[in-house]
Amino acid sequence: MTGTLSPAPLASFGEFLRHLRRRAHLTQRELGAAVGYSEAHIARLESNQRMPDPAVVRAQFVEALHLQDEPETAAQLIRLAEAAREMRHAPKANLLRGGPPTNLRTQLTSFVGRAGEIAEVKKRLGETRLLTLTGPGGVGKTRLAVQAASEVLSAFPGGVWVVPLASAQEGAQVANAVAAAIGMPSESPVTVEALCDRLRDDRATLIVLDTCEHLISACATLAVRLAQMCPNVSVLATSREPLNVPGEVTWQVPPMRCEEAMQLFVERARAVRPEFALDKADEALLIQICQQLDGLPLAIELAAARLRVLSLEQIAARLDDRFSLLTGGNRLAPPKQQTLRTMMDWSYDLLSEVERVLLRRLSIFTADWTLELAEAVCAWEPEQDDARQPGSSVHLRREDVLDTLTHLVNKSLVIVDERGTQPRYSLSNTIRQYAHEKLIEAGEFDQVYRRYLEYLPFMTQRDEPRPAQKRPRKRKSPTRAPSQVA
Ligand SMILES: Nc1ncnc2c1ncn2[C@@H]1O[C@H](COP(=O)(O)OP(=O)(O)O)[C@@H](O)[C@H]1O
Ligand SMILES: [Mg+2]
């Protein structure tokens, strides 16, 4: 197990091989010549059309790809080759053992905690045929869905199929991705109708549509058709926002609890520093790190991987520049899931222009806020707009704030707390820091900050900035939220 290379649940041998070959500046023909395979053989390995032979990978590929000095990377490649072989036999093997067919793979990193969450998901899967796990990027939706799916396998004799959609670019690819996962012979493109015909009479089957947010309407259409036309099919979706269709039950994946986050950190830390142990003083520091990282498993894994070169103190000290610190993630994951910044960029890029405007302006609040405050501080009349960039056509009006804020809540970017007399909203540390950078980049900080100060007298105790707050110095690429500048 490694920290920087902890594999994505569904990353393949072929993808990793291609990555390593390109990194070594080899063509498929050159790599083939070095290992005694044809160019076509390498091409088929890279597209996962041919099974790798782990013994040959160990004996030939490690050297040909110049991995002699990178034992972790070499071990990872060999493990993936072994996993690919196992997988080929998995559906059959599972059938032979009397279990349902599935494309669930053995996970290469440990699963930590989440007993309560798994129980919640299982319970809901027993009650609905369309369940969507929502939550911000990196909170653990995919991992939880895959884990829960593996624990309910016996309830789905027709099969449990995970459909990874993160790399799909168009809605039209969703049905094809499902067809590929369930092993349906297909001429492309597959229609939703053909898919429903194929699944209509199957015994109870679970389809896990993983990562729906960028193809939300295609996923919504498919999920509804499956639910309507295939009485034995259940869909478990993961998405930053609900599919928003009739019959859907949504469940928000919470951040990890502090003890679980700490356990995850320690397990991933040991992968890069096997001797890593926590003493009492470290424990307090680690609690602080986990809280600062909002209990976000992705951020915690990336932070733990930094122990390779930094101490715990150094990691804690650098968290207010977390986007530079938390890079170097899983090379097997799609690029948008590899670092904290690319993960945030992915969410931000999926927003409409007006949602981006509101999100970045909301970063001015250091504590939580109400709808009225957001309207007062973040929106104004066009003639008052000295922040508008030349060429920008977007103006956020006061009457747009409610809808836009609702969208940001739906998209798991704004947290809402409805326990009091009126809802209060907030941003996680990571999202606030990211949005704050965007606010400065957009040249809007001064105007929003002026309005924020104007409304300070009307804020309740909870809205007020912390006493140590000072206005941030203007910097070219600032990375600190106002509350974090001492
Ligand atoms: N309970 C868990 N135990 C171990 N690792 C986890 C757990 N939850 C999430 N992770 C890891 O954290 C990272 C982000 O999780 P992921 O499920 O991909 O998040 P999301 O799908 O919400 O973006 C992944 O590397 C995943 O393996
Ligand atoms: Mg995911």
List the main descriptive attributes of the protein structure presented here.
21 helices, Rossmann fold, disordered C terminus, alpha/beta, binds adenosine-5'-diphosphate, globular, 5-stranded parallel β-sheet, disordered N terminus, 486 residues, single chain, binds magnesium ion
Quick summary:
With 486 residues, the protein is an alpha/beta fold. It is built from 21 helices and seven strands. A hairpin with a 6-residue loop joins β6 and β7.
Describe it.
The protein has 486 residues and is α/β, with parallel strands linked by helices. It has four domains: 13-89, 434 Repressor (Amino-terminal Domain) (Orthogonal Bundle); 115-252, P-loop containing nucleotide triphosphate hydrolases (Rossmann fold, 3-Layer(aba) Sandwich), CATH 3.40.50.300; 258-346; 351-458, Arc Repressor Mutant, subunit A, CATH 1.10.10. The protein is built from 21 helices and seven strands. The chain has a five-stranded parallel β-sheet, with helices on both faces. A two-stranded antiparallel sheet has the order 6-7. Bound molecules: adenosine-5'-diphosphate and magnesium ion. Magnesium ion (MG) binds at residues 141-142, 211, 238. Adenosine-5'-diphosphate binds at residues 6, 109, 111-114, 135, 137-143, 238, 264, 297-298, 301.
Outline the fold blueprint.
Elements: H1 13-23, H2 28-35, H3 39-46, H4 54-64, H5 71-96, H6 115-127, E1 130-134, H7 141-151, E2 159-164, H8 173-182, H9 192-199, E3 205-210, H10 216-229, E4 233-238, E5 249-252, H11 258-272, H12 280-292, H13 297-305, H14 312-317, H15 322-325, H16 340-349, H17 353-362, H18 371-378, H19 401-410, E6 415-417, E7 424-426, H20 429-441, H21 445-455
Parallel strand pairs: 1-4, 1-5, 2-3, 3-4
Antiparallel strand pairs: 6-7
Helix pairs in contact: 2-3, 4-5, 6-7, 9-10, 11-12, 11-13, 17-19, 17-20, 18-21
The structure holds adenosine-5'-diphosphate (ADP) and magnesium ion.
